[in-house]
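Researcher: Structure for this, please.
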Amino acid sequence: MSISGCRGRAHARRSFLANSARGLLRAGVFGSAWSALWRTGSIAAAYPDELVSIDEYTRGKLSSGDVIDRDNVGLVKDLLDPVRYHQIATQGRRLSLAPTTTDLFKLNPPDYLEASLRHRGQARFDASGNVVTRDGTPWIGGNPFPEPTSALEVFAAHTLSWGRHDAALYVSREYDLDADGTVLYQYASGWAEMATVARASLDPHPYLPGLEDTLRLQSVFFVEPGDIQGTAYLSIWPYDQSRFPELYGYLPAFKRVRRFPTNQRFEPLNPGSELYLSDAWAAGDPFLTWGNYRVVGRGPFLGAVSGGWDARHPNWEHRTHGGPKDNRFWDTTVELVPEVIVIDAEPTGYPRAPVSRKRVWFDARTLLPLAMTSYDRRGEPFRFFDGAYSVYEDGDARVMDGRHPYWSWSTVHACNVQTGRMTRIEQVRTLPGGEHMRVNDAAILERYLTTAAIQRLGR
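Model: Predicted structure, C-alpha cell format:
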C-alpha cells in the first residue's frame, strides 16, 4: 500500500474519532455516505480506497476470493471481533473474502431504504423516550435515524424494524451441537413477523388501522421434531418500548392457548438451543428495557453482508466446516465493511438477567447488526452471535420480493463461549409439510399472527 494509502487510513481513524467526539455517528469519512448514495447511487465516494478494498487495506496480502484461516488470520485481527478471531485461530473456522459492496440497495430492501431517504429528518424521541414523527405520531417507515447522533438512536432504529420488511415468514432449520460436534437437537421452524406501524411496502401504510399502538406481531412455530411439533408462540409488541411484549403460546399437550410471562427473556424456547428471545436480531427486547447505551468503538470490520444465499441447493441449505466433526460453522462469505459502530448496552429492566451487558457491532451504513457478544455477571464473555445476510440473487437464479430480489438473513451462529455449545440456524426455502418463505404477503397476518392462527398451526 502506498504512502497515500497509509495517510488514508490515518485520516479515516481521525475522522471516526472526531465525529464520535462531536456525537456524529453518520457513516462516511469524506462526508455522508447517505448523501453520496443520494447523489451517485453508491457510498464509495464517502470512503478512502483503503476502506472499500481488502487488497488495499492489507497491502496486497489478501484479495477478494482468498480464504481467511488460521494461517493468515493475523493479517486481519484488527478487523474481527475477539470470538471469531479465536474460532478461526483455534477451531478451524474459515471465512471467504468477497469485494466490498458499495450499493446500499444490495444491503437492505430497496423499499426500506427509499422510505429512509424520503423521511430523513422527520424522527425524534418523545417525552417517554419512544420514536415519533415531528408531529408526535408513531414512526412512518424506513430508518428513523439513518445518520444517528447517539448509540440509543442506533438501537432504536434497528429495534423498530428487525428484518426491514413489512411482513415476512422465515422458515429455518436449527442444529444444536455440543463442544465435540455431536448434534444433540434438530428443529424445523417458522418465524413470522409483521409491522403494524412504519409500513413502507404493504397497504395500508404507514399504519395498520386499529393497531397504531402496536409495533409488531411476531410468532414462531415448530414442525420438527415430533415431540414439539405444533408448539407455537405469538408475541404482540407494544409501540411503547418501556413495556414488555405480550406472549401467548400453544402447547399441543394442553390443547389450548396460554399466556406466558415475558420479562424472562434470557432462556431458550427449546432444549439445546443457545439462542434466547433476547438475542433476536441482537435487539430482541424493547429498547427502553435496556440502558446505558454507549459507543465503544468505530472502524472497519469484516462482515457477512452479502453472498450468504446458496442457490446450489434446492432448499437453500448451506455447507459446514470446522470443529472436531467438520460441522461446527457454516461456510461464510465476508467482505470489508468500511465502518462499524460498536455499542455496549446494559439490561436495566431485568434485575435477574444472567448477562451484565452486550456489545454489538453495527454496520454504520445500514445500522444492521453483524455480531454480538454478551457478558456474564462477572464481566466475562458468555455468549456470541453472528449472522450472514444476502440478496437472494446468484447469476440467473433469484428469489423476488415483489419488484426486487429478496434481501434477508441467511445463516446464524449462536454459541456459548464458556461451554463450547453451538447453535447453527439457516433460512431455507420450505419445511416438511409445505410451509415456505414468504415476504410482504398480507396473508401472513391471519395465517400466523393471531391466537387463532397459532392454535390452528398446532393441530
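Researcher: Any notable elements?
Model: Confidence is low (pLDDT under 50) at residues 1-5. Residues 1-458 form a domain with the outer membrane lipoprotein receptor (LolB), chain A fold (CATH 2.50.20.10).
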